[in-house]
């Protein structure tokens, strides 16, 4: 399984985390993800996820004219989104703990 | 900032693909604008379109499309106007020339051919935008659909002429009323869709028939002038579409 396939299941939560750190737009999210070490196979893959998050009411967006550059869509978390992120963190905590224990025992 | 040709094509294909998938216009504009902004940022940093789509525009377009809900209401809203428009194209010319007649064959065959034609074009536009077909391939596919439709229509008209008695032939006055209704449909749909095409194309298609009706022109010459004006009209519309397309990008 490639790492991009593994990332698929948790990209929703990761994007909620990135957006939770402050209003941001698509390209900036990619840059922020890269700082954390995420290497996206396709940068565009965040947009279908953003559409889904917006449909589910976890994020809201607004189009803004930027002083230098194109018109951009800025995202922020809604209250439901903050709650969802909290749940994601809990789930991840439990999951990564188990996976950690498993893979470290082998060595 | 100006995007590379590949990216411009990708955005145009995206719009076409989503449009022919029955998505909401406003949402299409939204995602197109968002991706354009992303591509501008990416290209100004030396990245390519592939880094955004992951190398497969087709599966990426499908991905996007799956996350957008299909605007069934928008499609249904447009349907009656569309059916009226197709019907107007079929009967306005005959009504002006005075050879309008209704037979069972025409009543069944024309709507079926029209539906098949529309389905064919939608299928073709979806495929060609998802797979970014070359101009040559587009022309071949487009031409094939066009020729098969024309052949089917001619076959129906021919069969109808020799084999079947029409069950209703309107009087000349009724034909003029039908023609006027057809013109009204063209005008309304032009206003409704905010394009000139449904005025310009019928003008070329049916205008000459209308003028010649009041002049002494031999039948052979009438036929010739009608055909010539049809092709000039088509060429005109294609040129307009081409210019509009250039202006947009």
From TrEMBL, chain A:
Lineage: superkingdom: Bacteria
Domain Transcription regulator PadR N-terminal: 15-86
The protein's name: PadR family transcriptional regulator
Automatic annotation (TrEMBL), chain B:
Classification via Pfam families: HAAS_TM
TM annotation in the entry: 72-92, 104-124, 145-168, 174-192, 199-217, 223-243
Iron-sulfur among keywords: no
Keywords from the named record: Membrane, Transmembrane, Transmembrane helix
Domain HAAS transmembrane region: 89-202
Organism this protein belongs to: Planococcus salinus
Top-level taxonomic group: Bacteria
SUPFAM superfamilies: BH3980-like
Keyword match Membrane: yes
Protein name: HAAS transmembrane region domain-containing protein
